[in-house]
From TrEMBL:
Enzyme class: transferase
Domain Aspartate/ornithine carbamoyltransferase Asp/Orn-binding intervals: 184-309
Name of encoding gene: argF'
Protein name according to UniProt: N-succinylornithine carbamoyltransferase
Keyword ATP-binding applies: no
Swiss-Prot/TrEMBL keywords: Amino-acid biosynthesis, Arginine biosynthesis, Transferase
Catalytic activity entry: N(2)-succinyl-L-ornithine + carbamoyl phosphate = N(2)-succinyl-L-citrulline + phosphate + H(+)
Binding site for carbamoyl phosphate: 47-50, 75, 110, 147-150, 272-273, 300
Species, as recorded: Sediminitomix flava
Transmembrane residue ranges: none
InterPro entries according to UniProt: ArgF'-like (IPR043696), Asp/Orn_carbamoyltranf_P-bd (IPR006132), Asp/Orn_carbamoylTrfase (IPR006130), Asp/Orn_carbamoylTrfase_sf (IPR036901), Asp_carbamoyltransf_Asp/Orn-bd (IPR006131)
Task of the protein: Catalyzes the transfer of the carbamoyl group from carbamoyl phosphate to the delta-amino group of N(2)-succinyl-L-ornithine to produce N(2)-succinyl-L-citrulline. Is essential for arginine biosynthesis.
Any one GO molecular function term: ornithine carbamoyltransferase activity
Family: Belongs to the aspartate/ornithine carbamoyltransferase superfamily. SOTCase family.
Length: 315
């Protein structure tokens, strides 16, 4: 595997999630596979789960890990092609990543969108350029438009918890005070379209996701209608795709609360975290026995470990 930037980078994401669940049963079974191999984790943006789960996964495979926060630790990196580099950005990714590839056998990168230029963000240029400019495998730790490791962990969690062959999974928008990327929602929808689930997406008008990611999902603008008989409720805020990067609503009636969860089939509550409590979801829901958020975060480790294992086996 040369890259893991979308669910389509593996032949079958369902089989891959099953592999990850198998690895979870015996995570140290391949603890020498990564001996004398180095993973470089490059963060343009903050992280808690992605950073720690990826470090832990690499260590379980016997790898060494180097972590760099670009904005804090290194030269500020230029990502635009052909610019006159007379600003505060001292090095181009065209130079930096081939150099990082000299020290690392696999590179992980997190780079969020600008939320200003939809065309540029949806070209997913930074991660694609890094794949282009480096000779070593690249793992997306969340790009401008996708968060594939999160979606893989989400699929694992649904497989673990589902009591039905084809559960109803509802992705619901919820309010947030800041403009957030669409990456988590895009990857979740992309992956659920490939999974054996009934996918429903609910949000206020104006928050339609890119149709490429919506795929065959049913879009319902009435949140309560969408929640009826759901087996999984996946809450996430995202900024508008059509009115790109804008906050169009802060409607508190979209907060996931106990009353709305009561409409479901005793659904599990999911969120990728970090979450703003009592903004996205009430304490009562996220602290309830049906909350799967900690299990989801735990599965991040085995999702990325499965990707790294596959990459190490093919170096
Ligand atoms: N869910 C997730 O990616 O968390 P972090 O931003 O903390 O890595």
């Amino acid at each position: 595997m040369k890259k893991y930037t979308t669910a389509y980078d593996v032949p079958n994401i369902n089989d891959f999630a099953d592999k990850a669940l198998e690895l979870k049963k015996n995570p140290f079974a391949f603890d020498t596979l990564g001996k004398h191999k180095t993973l470089g984790l490059i963060f343009f943006n903050p992280s808690l789960r992605t950073r720690l789960s990826t470090q832990k996964a690499a260590m379980s495979l016997g790898m060494n890990v180097i972590v760099m926060n670009v904005d804090g630790d290194g030269w500020k990196l230029e990502t635009e092609e052909g610019v006159i580099m007379d600003s505060d950005k001292a090095e181009h990714i065209k130079d930096a990543f081939p150099v990082i590839g000299q020290y690392c056998d696999i590179i992980g990168v997190r780079s969020f969108p600008s939320l200003k230029d939809r065309e540029a963000d949806y070209a997913d240029k930074v991660i694609n350029d890094i794949v282009k400019y480096t000779s070593v495998p690249v793992v997306s730790l969340e790009s401008a438009i996708r968060h594939p490791l999160q979606a893989l962990a989400d699929l694992m969690t649904i497989k673990e918890l589902s009591q039905k062959a084809k559960p109803k999974v509802v992705l619901t928008w919820a309010p947030h005070p800041r403009a957030l990327p669409q990456a988590v929602s895009n990857s979740f929808a992309e992956t659920m379209n490939l999974a054996d689930v009934e996918l429903v997406i609910t949000h206020p008008k104006g928050y339609e996701l890119n149709p490429e990611f919506v795929g065959n999902a049913r879009v319902v603008y009435d949140q309560k209608e969408a929640f009826k008989d759901a087996d999984f409720i996946y809450a996430k805020n995202w900024s508008s795709y059509n009115d790109y990067g804008q906050i169009l609503s802060q409607d508190k009636s979209w907060v996931v609360d106990e009353e709305k969860m009561a409409l479901t089939n005793n659904a599990h509550f999911m969120h990728c975290l970090p979450v703003r409590r009592n903004v996205i979801v009430t304490d009562g829901v996220i602290d309830s026995p049906q909350s799967a958020v900690i299990q989801q975060a735990g599965n991040r480790e085995f999702a990325v470990q499965t990707v790294l294992k596959e990459m190490l086996e093919n170096l």
